[in-house]
Write a structure and sequence with these properties.
The chain has a domain at 30-73. The protein is 11% helix and 19% strand. It contains 1 helix and 5 strands, in the order βββββα. It has one helix spanning 58-66; strands at 2-4, 7-9, 33-34, 42-45, 52-55. The strands form 2 sheets. Strands 3-4-5 form a 3-stranded antiparallel β-sheet, with no helix packed on it. A hairpin with a 6-residue loop joins strand 4 and strand 5 (52-55). It is globular. 0% of the residues are buried.
Length: 85
């Protein structure tokens, strides 16, 4: 278990293709954090189902922002979070 501020997380290791077989204490919810072994990118989500944070190269983030099927807002560390109201 890993504790970050007001939350506890189970730390698991495995292939993303095996996600359906990973143990879960919350009824099958998706991981809150995911990243590959090379740490080239990171995905995080929270209890709000409409929000996810993705870190990666400028090229990877631009590809997500430019995808017409996704609703993506670019954010930068140290800047105020975008408003969704």
């Amino acid at each position: 278990m890993v504790t970050l501020e007001h939350r506890r997380f189970a730390l698991l290791s495995g292939r993303v293709t095996d996600i359906d077989s990973w143990p879960s204490s919350s009824g099958g919810s998706l991981p809150a954090f995911a990243w590959p072994e090379d740490r080239a990118w990171c995905f995080t989500s929270d209890v709000d189902p409409h929000w996810a944070g993705i870190a990666g190269s400028d090229e990877a983030i631009s590809a997500l922002v430019d995808d017409p099927h996704l609703d993506v807002v670019r954010a930068s560390f140290g800047e105020a979070a975008p408003s969704y109201y």
